Sequence to fold (200 residues):
Amino acid sequence: MFYEPKNGHGLPHNPFNAVVSPRPIGWISTRGTDGYDNLAPYSFFNAVAYEPPQVMFSSTSTKPDRDGTKDSVAHIRETGVFAVNIVEYAAKDAMNQTSGAWDKDTDEFALADIAKAECNGIACARVSNAPATLECKLTQIVQLPGAANFAVFGEVIGVHLRDDCLIDGKFDVTKFGMLARMGYQDYAVVRDAFTLKRPG
Fold:
C-alpha cells in the first residue's frame, strides 16, 4: 500500500501515529500568570540535544478558551517555563484523565488526584512522585504548517530523579515501566531492554 496524506489513506483509522511509535510521553506541567496549574500529556515529545540538554514537544489542537492553542502553550508563552514529567505505568489512568480538554481554570493535579510539588528552579508545579522531572526554560516556540501546530523547545535547567529508579548509577526505565504512546488509542510499557555497542 502507498498513499499520499494529502489525498487520504482510505483506512478506517489514520496509520501515521502507529507508524511513528512507540513515542515517549511528555507529561507537561505549567502554571499561568493567573496562578492556575495545568498538567497535560503530549506524545509528540522527545529530547533533541545533549549540551546543553534540550527537549521539545508539539501541541496539535486547540481549545475554544485558548485562542488557537491549548493551555500548556498558552502558559509557556506567558511565563517562559515548563516541566516535563516522565510517566510510569502505575500513573496511566491519572495521565489519561489529564488528557481531556478541560476548562482553562481546571487544575488537572486536583482533577486526577495527583500529588504535586514545587519545582526548584522555575515557578511551576511538578508531579511529586514521577520517576523523573525535567525543569525547562523556553528557548523557542515554532509554528509548524497547520492551523494549530506548535513545537515548543526548552533547555533543561534542573532534573529530578526518583531514588528507586537509579540502579548501579543508571536511570533504569524498566524499574518503573515507562509508558509510551502507540497509534490510535494504544500504549506500550517498557519492561525489557538490551544493549548494543557502537562499532569502533
Observations:
- DSSP finds four helices and 14 strands in the chain.
- The CA atoms of residues 36 and 105 lie 6 Å apart.
- The first helix runs from residue 16 to 19.
- The domain at 5-190 is CATH 2.30.110.10 (Pnp Oxidase; Chain A).
